Amino acid sequence: MKTITWKLHLKANPNKVFDLLTTAEGITKFRSEKANEDGDVIHFLFPNGQTYNSQIIKSIPNEEFHLDYFNSLVKFELKQAENGGTDLTLRNENVPESDFYEVHAGWISVLMNLKAVADFQCDLRNHDPKKTWDQGYVDN
Question: Which family does it belong to (predicted)?
């Protein structure tokens, strides 16, 4: 098992970033086609039709958000940056070695779209179920 770590600087403040990461409305703006919250579970629907029920493990508003994600552990850590923005660290732990390179690259796609939405109110995804990561499209 391996761990992926990425850092991202956003102009948006931690409150806005936390809302994008943790609310159904926020999640659908940058990450999945649909998301529903049910207590401590987020139900994801992705562009390729795949679904996942993600257990929320830890949530400290505007600071940390941890969840089970495809049988691995994803941790988002938010820190207020000097310019009022957010320094985000993503850690994806327990990623199977056989999935590492795909998941590693996939997080870049997700995080860059998060930046586009948070800082520029622009969704970079194509929203076409025939043009997803499975077919080699990074703008899924």
Answer: Belongs to the AHA1 family.
